[in-house]
Specification:
It is a single chain. The protein is mainly alpha-helical. Helix 3 packs antiparallel against helix 4 and helix 3 runs parallel beside helix 9.
């Protein structure tokens, strides 16, 4: 690397890539707003168009910012889950859940590497709290779940809860993102169990999901940039 390319504000490949990051982030925010507004207005077509665009845009933003590949992979597996969950059948639901599960494995691997680089491990007290919430929720919802979905949903819930707990390794933004991801999927589970729902339930599912993925991305990018600074 030349001295010129190494200076802040240079026009090297990294600098050019980061210049495109802001427009991509703006596109993500606009699509997210359109999706949420469409859900509130009952415009299903808007949701069908907007939802599949969300994670590719967020993944593109992360990649342009120099994010770890595991973060980009997690977001793209989330996109796969988003697309499959648009179909209204059990097979598509299971495939979509599987795609999200692979994304959570990507997050867990990334967070595990974070612990190995000198960051504090995820607190056991927080993990115990998540475990209690998970057990109580599963005990309450189990009788109302379709029999063929009980085991897959339990396995997925264990993986998601582990991801939410370990997300704290990358700071408060990622920790909040993990918690919101858990909340979003809990809202989906209550819908499957046919529990009473808040008005516009799909809006709340998407709001918490979009915020979760955005905060996880922000948390990882923040820590990644701090780590790359000299002396960090």
């Amino acid at each position: 690397m030349t001295a010129t390319a190494a200076r802040p504000g240079s026009t090297g490949a990294g600098g050019r890539a980061e210049r495109f990051a802001r427009p991509v982030l703006l596109a993500f925010l606009l699509v997210a707003a359109a999706d949420l507004a469409g859900l509130l207005a009952g415009a299903e077509t808007v949701h069908l168009v907007a939802k599949p665009l969300l994670m590719p845009l967020l993944a593109g933003y992360a990649a342009l910012c120099g994010a770890p590949r595991l973060l980009v992979a997690a977001l793209l597996f989330g996109w796969g889950g988003d697309v499959f969950l648009l179909a209204d059948n059990d097979l598509a639901f299971l495939v979509g859940m599987g795609s999200f599960a692979v994304g959570h494995v990507c997050y867990l691997t990334l967070f595990g590497r974070g612990e190995g680089r000198g960051r504090a491990p995820a607190p056991l007290v927080t993990g115990a709290g998540y475990a209690v919430v998970l057990v109580v929720f599963l005990v309450l919802i189990w009788p109302d779940l379709p029999a063929d979905l009980r085991i897959p949903l339990t396995g997925y819930s264990l993986l998601l809860t582990a991801m939410a707990w370990r997300a704290g390794v990358f700071g408060p933004y990622a920790a909040a993102g993990g918690a919101l991801f858990l909340l979003s999927d809990a809202l989906i589970a209550t819908g499957i169990a046919e529990w009473p729902q808040a008005p516009a339930p799909d809006f709340w599912v998407m709001l918490t999901y979009i915020a979760a993925q955005a905060l996880l991305t922000l948390g990882v990018l923040t820590k990644h940039k701090t780590q790359r600074k000299p002396g960090a």
